[in-house]
Amino acid sequence: MQRIALIASLLALLVAVPAMAQVGKDWGSGGFESYGTKEGGESGQMAMDRGFEEVDQDADGMVTESELQESYGDQITQERSFNEMDQNADGGLSQEEYQMAGGQAGSEGGESQ
Length: 113
Description:
The chain is mainly α.
């Protein structure tokens, strides 16, 4: 009887350990580096760590949803709505709206010019 319980326990471990390894694979390891995430963020949202000019690819003074997705990937708009970031609902983020959403002021890492 004890052998059966031991074998059942070992089989349960064989199933559970790989499943736990999959869940924690990128947990706290910066596993989404290509999307610009930073560890330790209080909100748990993706960090928008690029300068406004870098994300505004056509240099029209507005960051569109497609420019945001090209710079950060689709994950950025899955975590927070572009419409929420675009406070005046003009279809693009001004530099002020971009900064309020967590983005950097300029390409020099947030220094004002």
